[in-house]
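Feature request, filed as a ticket because there's no other form

It would be nice if the structure record came with a short human-readable summary line next to the tokens. Right now we just get the raw output. Example of a typical job, pasted below so the devs can see what we mean:
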Amino acid sequence: MDDLGGMTKAIESGMAKRRIEESATRKQARIDSGEEVVVGINKYRVETDTAVPVHEVDNAKSRAKQMERLAQVRAARNEEEVAAVLAELRESAALPLDSPVGASSNLLGLAIKAARARATVGEISDALRTVWGEHSPSTEVVQGAYTSAYTASPQEDAASDYAQVLAIIDDFATKEGRRPRILVAKMGQDGHDRGAKVIASGFADLGYDVDVGPLFQTPSEVAQQAIDADVHVVGISSQAAGHKALVPALIEELKAKGAGNMVIICGGVIPPQDHAFLHDCGVTAIFGPGTRIMDAASEVLDAVISKQVK
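Raw output as currently delivered:
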């Protein structure tokens, strides 16, 4: 970190995040190979999962209710006061870092002042964004970490299992003239991307061409990126319970753009009771926590081949 100029520079360069993702990818490979035991995941698994009650939120109703509340807040507030305090916030954000600490440079205090004036969180964020811009995390994947950790496993047949999956992917590339291509995407306000990056890194090591979309995309943006990259598969990573609203919207966007033949898969934390709904919408496979990347890569390739045959 010191060589880069401290933690701030390490974060800005993306190095800190890459190191974390590399470590997570190696750990996943050790779990997949059986070298590292996780009880209930790769050893001593129960035959049937216990159903866990999940409180379901109607996203459409919640959004409509929140929009109504925002309209009421904006109708009742003093717009001149809001504009003035947001201007203060922008001016403070633009001050040099070595400015003397005082009321004019206290961003937290000004943000609280703006909230008391009934500025929204979005408006406060936008005021800072106009000065600082927006951080865009790297979409590159870790190379070689999954391969090195999996094939180094002392577990019997680890290397041969790995070679077998590589062989079927290479065979596909030979027959089709290109490798299977997947877009790993995050939609909505779900900023948890470590699992998605681990999957992307593992698939890349196994021979897939992998594209990783930026965070917070809309279904329309994901559909367009998938079409532009000419992928076989769109993999949706979901951790924030938006899958029942966002995944069907993506599928409709792809159909509207003439790309309804793409394979759609989902992964992450998706309650089992939602699986049937997603399958009915057109999702081919759902990979929950504990899925081996090797198994997922093979199953996804089978789905691509099956889709092409049809």
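Something like this underneath would help us a lot:
The longest helix spans residues 15-33.
The mean pLDDT is 89.
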